[in-house]
């Protein structure tokens, strides 16, 4: 640490020794850098802020209308605004003198402008266009005109895009409408010529065959059940007698028909049938006929006088139909009817299966061609319907563009006339000039000190390993001291006056410009 302090004091003393040349060099460098900064051309900056304003209607009609993507335009914003075509249009709009020069000069000038124009994008809804140049009026007019040209072309492009989409959809609708009509005419003519008015849907036919097969399986099960039931009833019927003999007395004091058990059973059977069927049911009609016949027989029955022991005094014998036999016979008839119906359904289902299988095996070529024509017609019809739906969306989009209801570019801060130059920055250049002067002076002192081989202090001898026996002090006269003091005063006054004049020139230049 002590060694570092010694070095510092060494260079401070060296600065005092070389003060005249160091100050002169520093002032020279200060003047050189300051003068150069004052000769630099003045550059002015103009910028314009554009806001991308999204309409509320855009979110309300989402899915109904199609609006241009603003995000996509923001992504290509720099390339669009710095395109050669747009810059040439901007220069023509402001009547630039560059078009009076040669083609090579024009190309170089336009390429330079493409590099000088700066576009900064902030988020997805704001961008700033700026230009730095030597002519105040030019940079202002160029930036404002460039932004206006871009906004106008963007709006025109969106409207042209909406109109173009509308025209394209209308053309396609007319084209597909014609194709659809031609397809319908071709189908009608084909059917008239070939006599084919339907197509065979193979998948639907196979499904129908499977359904009929399932029905047949169910009917076969029912038929087996009915056959078993028929056999049982037939066996039961074979064990019964068709008729029975009734024995009754003529002096019982009440009606024969009221006491006849067969008639009562038949009436009970009739009541049961009426609960399930109407009077037109064959079983009910037949039962009514049998009851009428039985009543007639009872009314005309005659007493039997022989075998008085078995009949008793005043007894009668009458032969009539067996009600149990009739009941079993009736149920047998019902089972046979159900069996016949099931067998008939099974036969119909088998015929339908045979018919559908034949259709699958023998699909005519004409039906295949008709199916192709129908598929083509359906394809055209689907596209036609889609185009009609998109036409509605396109019409809404076009009306939004006409009413300027979509996202728009709004210039919120146009470029103003730049009065203060952005370059050169005289404050920074002034600080740089002083720093350069101090650096030059310090560098000169460091160089002279290291090139000087004189022994300035006893410490230098000690560092060299030489023993110091005595030190003779430097005794300066009063006149010499006074002369040195005057020179120092003159140097300080001169330096202050020079720096003051230098600052005055800088301030005057900054104020005047």
Given helix and strand content, the structural type is alpha+beta
How can the largest sheet be summarized?
Answer: 4 strands, antiparallel
Order of helices and strands: HHEHHHHHEEHHEHHHHEHHEHHH
Q: Assess the beta-strand content as a share of residues.
A: 5-15%
Q: What is the helical fraction, as a range of percent?
A: 55-70%
Shape category: elongated
The rounded distance between the terminal residues' Cα atoms is: 51 Å
Radius of gyration: 62 Å
Number of helices: 18
- Major sheet: arrangement of strands: 2-3-1-6
In the predicted model, the low-confidence regions spanning at least 5 consecutive residues are: 56-66, 248-257, 303-314
- Total beta strand runs: 6
Write down the overall mean pLDDT: 76
Folded structure, characterized:
Among the domains are: 128 residues, no CATH class; 79 residues, no CATH class. About 6% of the residues have low confidence. The longest helix has 59 residues. Helices cover 70% and strands 8% of the residues. The two termini are 51 Å apart. The strands form two sheets. Strands 2-3-1-6 form a four-stranded antiparallel β-sheet. A two-stranded antiparallel sheet has the order 4-5. With 513 residues, the chain is α+β, with helices and mostly antiparallel strands. Helix 2 runs antiparallel to helix 16, helix 8 packs antiparallel against helix 15 and helix 9 runs antiparallel to helix 14.
